[in-house]
Amino acid sequence: MRSSFALIATAGLVAVALSGCTAPAPAPEATTGGSSELVEATGEFGSAPKVDFPTPLTPSDTECTEIIEGEGPLLTEGQMSLVGLAVYNGATGDELQVTGFGDEDPVPLTVSDTTLPGLKQGLTCAREGSRVAVVIPEKDGFGPNGNESIGIAPGDSLVMVIDVKQAFPSRADGAVRLTRDGFPAVVLAPDGRPGITVPKNDPPEQTEVEVLKQGDGEVVESGDTVVVQYTGVLWDDNSVFDSSWENGSPVTFTVAEGEGAQVIPGFSKAIIGQTVGSQVGVIVSPEDGYGDQANAKIPAGSTLFFVVDILGVL
Known about the structure:
Strand content: 25-35%
Largest sheet: 7 strands, antiparallel
Number of helices: 4
């Protein structure tokens, strides 16, 4: 889906007190400035823009300007969006990459520390339906060494024009539902990160699913690719073996009954038939997990427990 620059930008060149409260929306991490206001990007939203700006642009900090106004709240930490992305050398004006516009697959970008620092800051100025111009100085871009492979010399700034085609929430927003006695307890941090306590009793022999929050979005069907946040723990010792929250970004998986699934059967069983916006807890039996084969931090024969936030369907 992503070509060279998007991959570089999202792969790194790019202890929480638990409570039931919701954190207030933070302010954008960048503001408009003299450099970003000089970027012109014409054309219809969602189509490759015609971009023009004087060179060189040399901002001291990352700047962003909303060229086409979107709707809804600004993107915040942990949110994934699908975008069209046009990237230029701010010193020379050279086009570096234009991708995700028109009929092309959009580029998934997340507001997180896994993203290029200036790009992360710029995304916090945008919302679904926005076209934003972002101008990024060396310190928030590729640093003092630049990136010769894509045409960025030391000291060069970056100019990006981003159309936010779709934005996913960072957490499930459905109505809270009570769970039965004996089911693992889940308490949420202000950002939605789950804290899990597995009971001391023996696990059930079969996979069991509970809806923790009931969303009102579309129903997930077999074969769908879903956007989720999740945390998985071992039933035996309550240790976390994998978590998208800890990894810094929501993830996409194809769920299916049988062939085509990119996850273990128990994960698919938990999500298929549920609605977007829901949070589900699933006790995964060894049969629906990794069976008698060990996998990374998961011993053979393990019962697993996942909390999964269903954020969207691609």
